[in-house]
Amino acid sequence: MSAALSHLRVLDLSRVLAGPWAAQNLADLGAEVIKIERPGRGDDTRSWGPPYLHDRAGGETREAAYYLAANRGKRSVTVDITRPEGQAIVRALAAQSDILLENYKVGGLAKYGLDYASLHELNPRLIYCSITGFGQSGPYRERAGYDFIIQAMGGLMSLTGERDDLPGGGPQKVGVAFADLTTGLYATIAILAALAYRERSGEGQHIDMALLDVQVALVANMGSNYLCSGRVPHRYGNAHANIVPYGVFPCRDGQLVLAVGNDEQFRRFCTVAGCSELADDARFARNRDRVVNREALQPLLEVALRRRDGRDWMEALEAVGVPCGPINDLAQVFADPQVRARGMQVELPHAQAGTVPLVGSPMKFSASPVRYQRPPPLLGEHTSEVLGERLGYDATTLQALHEQGVI
C-alpha cells in the first residue's frame, strides 16, 4: 500500500529547523520532498557542529547532527535563486508541486518572482506555506525571528525556570528549540488542513505561520490563567501552577518525578508512603487546598520520599496507579525498553557513514505506516537526478548550468 501522502510533491525552500521539520514530517508520511539549497553551502545547519556524522573510517563528515535531525526523506537540489536561470528552475518545479515551504524574510522572495502571488498565478493549486518569526503582518513583520528570542518574547521563559527567590532562580529557555519545532508541527497541521480544503475547492492557498503566534498559543493553560484572573503567572520551577503534588522530589538514591493528578491519587500515594494522615488533613485533602498550602505540604512529602530508593517508589506507586517516573538522560532514554519497543531510534543507509542513526517518528498508523525512504541527503546529491527527471534537462544542459554556478 502507498504511504498516506505518496501522491504529493513538496518543494522545500526552508532552512534551519521550523520549515525543515514540517517538510520532514511530510516526507515521513510519504510525500516526495525536494529540498532546494544554496550551491556550495546549503542549509545553515549543515555546519552547526560538532557533533558531526562520522564516515566509515571514523573521520568527521560535513554532515552536522543538527542537520541530520530534520532532513531525512528528502532529495537535495542546489540552485542559486538569485540568478534568473535558478529562478526559472524553482518556478518550473513549483508548477509541478502540491506544497511549497519557505522561511525567507517577509517579501524576500518577491524580488525573485518566487512569492505566493507569482507562484499562485503559475499553479493555482499550490499550497504555499511561509514561516517567519513574526508573520506577514503587524509592526514586527520585518524582524528576523530566532527561537531563543521568541521563547523570551512569547512568555515561555517567564514560566520556565526556578523561582526567583530560590537558588538558581530566573528565566530559562527550554532545552530544545521549542518555538521552531512546534511551529514546524503547526505548519504540518495547517498544510494538511489546506490539502483537505483543496480536495473540495480545487484551490491552493497561502499559509502564514509565525513563531511568535505559535509560542503565544502554546502558553495554553497558563495564558488562560492570566486572561481569566488578570494575574501574571510566575515561575514554579518543576512544580505545577494548578496541581499539587506535581514536581521533582528527592528519594534515597536520587530524584523522581511525582505527578498526582487528583484527590484519589493523592490518597493512594499517602497510603503507600505511610502518611495517610496527610490525605485527611483539611489543608491537603483537596487539590485546591494543596495548591494554596503547597509550601506546608512540600517538606512533609520530601521526608516521606527520602525513605526509599527511586525504583522502589516507582514500582510501589505504579502498582496503585499513581503517576511517577525517573529523570532520564538521553543515553537512558534510548536504552529504555519502551522507547526501543516503539521504534524511536532508526538506522538508515548513508553514502558516507554506511548507516546514520536518527530519532524515529512518533506517528503510528495501522494502514499507512511511516516509511523512512531516504537518509538526510548530501548537499546537491540529487540535483542532476531531479532536474533530469522532473524538468527533462539533459547532461549538456546540466553541465552548462553547473559551470555557470546556477546549480
Automatic annotation (TrEMBL):
Sorted UniProt keywords: Transferase
Gene Ontology molecular-function annotations: CoA-transferase activity
Transmembrane segments: none
A Pfam match: CoA_transf_3
SUPFAM superfamilies per the UniProt record, alphabetical: CoA-transferase family III (CaiB/BaiF) (SSF89796)
PANTHER family attached to this UniProt entry: SUCCINATE--HYDROXYMETHYLGLUTARATE COA-TRANSFERASE
Name of this chain's protein: Crotonobetainyl-CoA:carnitine CoA-transferase CaiB-like acyl-CoA transferase
Lineage of the organism: Bacteria, Pseudomonadati, Pseudomonadota, Gammaproteobacteria, Candidatus Competibacteraceae
